[in-house]
């Protein structure tokens, strides 16, 4: 990656992949690992505390928890899985949504300032070790081994010879690409968004401290963009958590559906 060289000879190295590889805090424990554990504590504490003393007329915190639960239950799980089958999957979908959301929002929280999902291992673990086994398990359980393979790879109504082309493509998508693309989607969004914030923030700092006097006002422009991008990033972080949970529920719904 190129460097910006100013008149005084100072150089600016733009942020890159190296800024996402953080040194251990102690032993082999890194900041992203700590943030993942912290997110579990935050999500668990939020629901435990807000549901400890439920009232008919909810407090603002109870209302917030009920709103999040209702969103995960009705707007994601029920819509994607169907009113007949969705109830057993509400805890999973709600957990995926809130877990990914909190880890994404870490990227704009002062001091923390690192979106955990910008490390590919975390969303990949969720997709491959949690979502992937669940939706294939329920598919095999509902349709049987041969029935589910047929259900997943052979859409009804296609001419017989077409299946020679369609079946391998469907198998590749359902059994290999779905979990990978699910993980890459949130990873790429968090990685790119955090990188953009680093560029504007560190670039503004560099211009203020090391640029000639005539260029120092440009640092204010860079920081203004950083602030604007922070609000945009917050929206994307929420959106990506929603999409991750939505697609997870959609995969489960498709596996359970009677028709392809």
TrEMBL record:
Gene: atpB
One annotated Gene Ontology cellular component of this protein: plasma membrane
Membrane topology: Multi-pass membrane protein
HAMAP family: ATP_synth_a_bact
Membrane-traversing stretches: 32-50, 89-114, 120-140, 182-202
Organism in which the protein naturally occurs: Actinokineospora iranica
MF-aspect GO terms: proton-transporting ATP synthase activity, rotational mechanism
Alphabetized UniProt keyword annotations: ATP synthesis, Cell membrane, CF(0), Hydrogen ion transport, Ion transport, Membrane, Transmembrane, Transmembrane helix, Transport
The name this protein goes by in its record: ATP synthase subunit a
Keyword Transmembrane: yes
